[in-house]
Specification:
The protein has 259 residues and is α+β, with helices and mostly antiparallel strands. It folds into three domains: 90 residues, Cytochrome Bc1 Complex, Chain D, domain 2, CATH 1.10.760.10; 74 residues, Orthogonal Bundle (Cytochrome Bc1 Complex, Chain D, domain 2), CATH 1.10.760.10; 50 residues, SH3 type barrels (Roll), CATH 2.30.30. It contains seven helices and seven strands; from the N terminus they run αααααββαβββββα. The strands form two sheets. The protein has a five-stranded antiparallel beta sheet with strand order 6-5-4-3-7, with no helix packed on it. It has a two-stranded antiparallel ribbon with strand order 1-2. The termini are far apart. 27% of the residues are buried.
């Protein structure tokens, strides 16, 4: 009996390793994979995974891989003699990337933050952004638009289509660190709103909604506040699900080239 125990143990370990794939995919895996994807893969494959011709990473069909472990292998080793580079990813990272690729294809309304799954028409999205969405009153795209919100000229390289849909539905849920809205009131009562750039014990630096950079001395202010709610309105009741998908589809094509 005594001899059997270590053997059982070894067998368990042997099964435990490949079984990592079988551990349930969590939303956190998908998000981690999405972050890696946007910084390390989207440069070539595009934020929607469809920019390399003949390859659609959002289709769940791969010419060179079938199973998740094929894909993890491919992501780590790259494809020799093609531009697809090897990556120095841990098993966990590769697992997260693959979870994200699968989630792109499995997009269902509301599932795992995967978005509505509706195909958005970028041309229709553009006319909504420039027309009834009035996004230009706060955002610049290329050389036109306002300064109350961040420049969207390259937003397609920073956010996935699903995260763009989510942003339009609930702006407060996901404000990026670089876009924290700030509201300051001077001693004379004048209100200054904008985006926080930097701060220390004595001053705050901000980009005002008029597009001007400002450094405000804290002892000259009556109060100031980094806001937890976004000045951006929700479009949940203003646009249909299809229109939201169209706008997200358009934004995801914005990759900085209009500048
Ligand atoms: C420098 C550009 C580049 C980067 C960066 C890049 N890829 Fe690729 N990838 C390619 C190209 C080009 C191909 C097509 C190669 C071929 O089959 O000729 C490809 C192919 C693939 C395939 C195989 C598709 C199929 O149908 O079999 C997968 C999967 C893939 N890439 C995933 C990724 C992931 C995930 C990342 C980031 C971790 C990534 N790629 C980063 C250029 C890139
Ligand atoms: C009243 C001003 C205002 C309007 C109108 C507005 N936004 Fe915004 N938007 C903001 C502000 C301020 C932020 C930065 C804070 C935040 O992330 O919520 C922002 C953030 C965003 C972000 C996230 C940017 C990032 O870098 O993460 C996207 C995407 C966006 N807006 C798209 C749109 C679109 C598309 C429209 C029109 C349908 C629109 N916004 C209308 C003010 C506005």
């Amino acid at each position: 009996m005594k001899l059997i125990l270590p053997v059982v143990f070894l067998v368990l370990v042997a099964f435990a390793l490949p079984a990592q794939e079988g551990h349930g995919v969590t939303t956190a895996d998908i998000q981690r994979g999405g972050q890696i994807f946007l910084t390390s893969c989207a440069t070539c494959h595009g934020p929607n995974g469809d920019l390399v011709s003949g390859v659609n990473l959002a289709s769940n069909r791969f010419r060179r891989a079938q199973t998740d472990s094929d894909l993890m292998d491919l992501v780590k080793k790259g494809i020799p003699s093609t531009p697809m580079p090897p990556g120095n990813y841990s098993d966990e990272q590769a697992f997260a990337i693959v979870a994200y690729l699968r989630s792109l294809a499995n997009a269902r309304p509301g599932a795992n933050g995967a978005g509505s799954g509706l195909a958005g028409d970028p041309a229709r999205g553009k006319s909504i952004v420039e027309g009834k969405g009035q996004c230009g009153s706060c955002h610049r795209i290329g050389n036109t638009g306002g300064f109350a919100g961040p420049d969207l000229t390259a937003i397609g390289t920073a956010r996935s289509r699903a995260s763009l849909e989510a942003k339009l539905l609930d702006p407060n849920a996901d404000i990026r660190e670089s876009n924290r809205p700030v509201r300051a009131v001077a001693k004379d009562g004048k209100v200054i709103v904008g985006t926080l750039l930097n701060y220390d014990n004595y001053s705050i630096q901000m980009l005002g909604s008029d597009g001007k950079l400002r450094a405000l001395q804290i002892d000259k202010l009556k109060e100031y506040e980094v806001m937890k709610t976004s000045p951006m309105p929700s479009y949940k009741d203003k646009l249909s699900a299809q229109e939201i998908a169209d706008v997200a589809g358009y934004l995801s094509t914005l990759r900085g080239q209009t500048q």
